[in-house]
Amino acid sequence: MTDHFPHLLEPLDLGFLRLRNRVLMGSMHTGLEDRRRDFEKLAVYLAERARGEVGLIVTGGIAPNRSGWLAPFSSKLTGSGEVPRHRLLTSAVHDEGSRICMQILHAGRYAYHPFGVAPSAVKAPINPFRPRKLSRRGVERQIQAFVRCAGLAREAGYDGVEIMGSEGYLINQFLAPRTNLRLDEWGGDIQGRMRFAVEIVRRVREAVGHDFIIIFRLSMLDLVEDGNTWPEVVALGRALEAAGVTMINTGIGWHEARIPTIQTSVPRAAFTWVTARMKRELRVPLVATNRINMPDVAERILAEGQADMVSMARPLLADPDWVRKTREGRWKDINTCIACNQACLDHVFQRRRATCLVNPRACHETELNYLPARDPKRIAVVGAGPAGLACATVLAERGHEVSLFEASNEIGGQFNMAKRIPGKEEFAETLRYYEQRLRNTGVDVQLSQRVTADRLLREDFDAFVLATGVVPRRPDFPGLLHPKVLSYVDVLYGGMRPGARVAVIGAGGIGFDMCEYLIHGEGESPSRDLRRWQQEWGVDPAYDHRGALAPARPEPSPRKVYLLQRSTGKPGAGLGKTTGWIHRATLRNKGVETISGVAYDGVDDAGLHIRVGDERRLLEVDHVVICAGQEPLRELMEPLQNDARPVYVIGGADRAVELDAKRAIDQGTRLAARL
Ligand code: FAD
Ligand code: NAP
Ligand code: SF4
User: Fold this and answer.
1) pLDDT tier at 2 (50, 70, 90 boundaries)?
2) Which of 341, 357, 660 maximizes ligand 2 atoms within 8 Å of its Cβ, making it the mutation to test the pocket?
3) How far is CA 555 from CA 391, 499, 506, 538, 587, in A?
4) Which of 14, 275, 375, 478 gives 20 to 30 Å between its CA and that of 555?
């Protein structure tokens, strides 16, 4: 089966060491790195990915000193007392036949504490703490910290280190005129600005010898104003090569960049063109990154010679067996990362342990396991939305006999609407995965069966799981039965096409998604067309400007859209930390008028009548689409509860407030793991 993905599965010979394939598990902070007591969990998490046949793993970022901490008391490696806990990680990975590098990350001005340092005292727009400017001696001390840290990594059994030089962290801050205002030998022109990066690599190489991997994560696209030019990036790449790097990994965009780089609406492999361009300049192996999540995409990048390896971080949270399934030709079994960020990056920003929306076991491998059932039962699961799918498949995997009833003629529940939102096409992958998993686990799936309590009670089930989801909430104002009024289900599932002027009532997740649907023409998602997407956001593939920025040229919306909410706060305040700003920017760019503090007076032939404070307004719209939240659907609950057999309620049927697929899948999985 390796015939399908020959480039991806080909070993990579580094001279002193051979990697078993071209998959690098990219650095991803999980939160388990920060406390000594979590290292055993981290070791199990990494070992599972190694068992899944990843070629090379890179750990989450580890600071070389306290000033480089991302936040107080986050991970660091500064003394030999910390080495033994890292040995747990390296031996766990080596025992499974993989290789592992430790990422050295110095936060610089992104340090979320008052002791941050930087080339110049320029505060980051995303951090309240202003860094202290490093003196010349201070610069020297930072270099020594990198060298000491790399030596300790070698002592801990790592196969190498990745030096984090991108994403706007300290080294990147030295590199770019945006943040390096120094006039001494560490600043000025590119030769001065890159001295810090090159010195670190040169001295680390000197300290660790030749048989140790040094990856440098190079910011090939800064995507910020006063970032580097292409000739400067190339000059740095060449200097790093001469200084002794083993490989160069691609970095895309600073954290403060206002261009999405990894979220689901970013087209797959949207940035590999820049790695391909760098391939023409350098000899060392290059690694391509960002929005690579399926084997066909990865194979194409390698087959076309755009890169020598592909890096994936989140896809390996979603599925630790990604590489093994690929090798065995079972790519359809891959649980695909849908790039939602909801359980990984959003958690990390909240200082919570990372996990994965589609795989709640991620980073919980020691706590959440699907052991064979001691007393297998016959279980009815009602509803094949995310909660029911997760529950039914884990129950069946554990040996229960499971019947899954679904009223619609397809599985997926609300995900069938989510996948129609421009930029959320990836959500269809989760449904493909579950189709496959239902088959593999032998769940008896009964589609187009809106089951009644009578029917369930007649059959000899031992237990019932209600995963019947939600129904849209109907607000209360005059004119709700007017033909202008539609619900989000009418539009996204019922095939109704709103006219040219639309008011959306409710500015939660679904209200925002509805706007995305209305402002991009039907079937016109820019996520499927890289050129259009680059124009929408202002990415310059010609690299004519610093940071590869070009003026954004969003296409005009085919509709006039109003987004309304009763509360007075910021619309979309509840959206994810790493994705909310993208939705808000898109709506702004497309001219959506958001109105807060609205009272709804009613709908008639003229349109939607609203009040904002004392002001009355008529929005002359063709349609009003209601996205006013949801209520649990629990019609089966009462009749079933009168029976002696246990009834469990999960997902939206349990609680509609703040429901999302992360909670639905997690709850379904955890219930199934303990029954
Ligand atoms: P549902 O998905 O509602 O599934 C319930 C299922 O039960 C349905 O298929 C229904 O037909 C079936 N059913 C009901 N009664 C019966 C019966 N009597 N017999 C048989 N079957 C029955 N969440 C996120 O986390 N991230 C997102 O980005 C996101 N985007 C979204 C975008 C849109 C447009 C929408 C509408 C939702 C989005 N969601 C998102 C929310 C997410 O889809 C829901 O939280 C999730 O689907 C809830 O799962 P559930 O299984 O509880 O319910
Ligand atoms: P929601 O986030 O609760 O938003 C409901 C909106 O409707 C609110 O803006 C609310 O604002 C308004 N509303 C509530 N009651 C109303 C009433 N009686 N009359 C008029 N307006 C009313 O719910 P949702 O948008 O339906 O989303 C459901 C869940 O799906 C969310 O919790 C979300 O997590 C998930 N989801 C997530 C994403 C994502 O990108 N992560 C995308 C889509 C959905 P006011 O009360 O201020 O008017
Ligand atoms: Fe991917 Fe979402 Fe899982 Fe993160 S939470 S790994 S983005 S699917």
Assistant:
1) low
2) 660
3) 42, 19, 25, 12, 12
4) 275
Listing DSSP states for 536-603 in one string gives HHTB-TT--SGGGB----PPPPSSEEEEE-SS-S-TTTTS-TTTHHHHHHHHHHTT-EEE-SEEEEEE
Judged by DSSP in three states, 29 sits in coil
Q: Would residue 169 show up in a list of annotated catalytic residues for this protein?
A: yes
Tell me the pLDDT band of 521, cut-offs 50, 70 and 90.
confident
d(CA 520, CA 321): 36
For the stretch 40-84, pLDDT in tens is: 999 999 999 999 999 999 999 999 999 999 999 999 999 999 999
Exposed/middle/buried for 450, CB within 10 Å: 0-12, 13-18, 19+? exposed
β-pairing, 598-604 vs 607-612, is: antiparallel
Structure tokens at 74: 């986050």
The answer, yes or no, to whether residue 364 has pLDDT greater than 80, is: yes
Q: Give Cα separations from 173 to 187, 217, 222, 330, 566 (angstroms).
A: 10, 13, 11, 43, 43
Options 45, 110, 158, 169, the catalytic residue: 169
Cα-Cα-Cα-Cα dihedral sign, residues 353, 355, 357, 361: negative
Q: Which of 265, 389, 391, 414 to mutate to test the pocket of ligand 1 (most atoms within 8 A of CB)?
A: 414
Tell me what pLDDT residue 4 has: 82
Cα 413 to ligand 2 centre (Å): 17
CB 99 within 8 A of CB 56: yes
Q: Rounded mean pLDDT of the chain?
A: 96
- CB burial readout 299-325, b (16+ within 10 A) else e: bbbbeeebbbbbbbbbbbbbbbbbbbb
Q: Which are the contacts of 472, defined by CB distance < 8 A and separation ≥ 6? A: 487, 488, 489, 626, 627, 628, 629, 630, 631
Query: Each residue of 528-587: pLDDT tens digit?
Result: 899 999 999 999 999 999 999 999 999 999 999 999 999 998 898 889 989 999 999 999
CA of 343 to the centre of ligand 3 (A): 6
- Give the span between the Cα atoms of 334 and 311, in whole angstroms: 17
- Which residues partner with 102 through β-bridges? 161
Which parts of 21-92 are beta strand (E)? 23-25, 56-62
Residue 505 structure tokens? 């009532």
Query: Going from the N-terminus, what domains does the chain have, and what CATH number goes with each?
Result: 12-349 (3.20.20.70), 378-471+631-674 (3.40.50.720), 474-521+557-628 (3.50.50.60)
The alpha carbon of 451 is separated from its chain's Cα centroid by a whole number of angstroms, namely 36
Which tokens go with 214?
Answer: 């040094």
Q: How far is Cα of residue 395 from the mean position of the Cα atoms in its chain?
A: 27
Q: Establish how many alpha carbons lie within 13 A of residue 44's alpha carbon, considering only the half-sphere containing its beta carbon.
A: 14
Per the CB < 8 A criterion, the answer to whether 91 and 99 are in contact is: no
CA angle 22, 228, 309 (to 5 degrees): 5
For 393-408, the DSSP string reads HHHHHTT-EEEEE-SS
Secondary structure element (H or E) that encloses residue 624, with its range: strand 623-626
Note the pLDDT of residue 1: 47
Tokens, residue 73: 């008391």
Nearest CA to ligand 2 atom 34: 660
- List Cβ neighbours of 202 (8 Å cut-off, separation of 6 or more): 243, 244
Q: What is the pLDDT of residues 171-180, one digit of tens each?
A: 999 999 999 9
- Find the 385 Cα to ligand 2 centroid distance in Å: 19
Q: What is the model's pLDDT at position 524? A: 75
Looking at residue 353, its pLDDT comes to 97
Within 6 A (CB) of ligand 2 lie 342, 473, 475, 505-511, 513, 565-567, 574-576, 627-630, 658-660
131 CA from centroid of ligand 1 (Å): 45
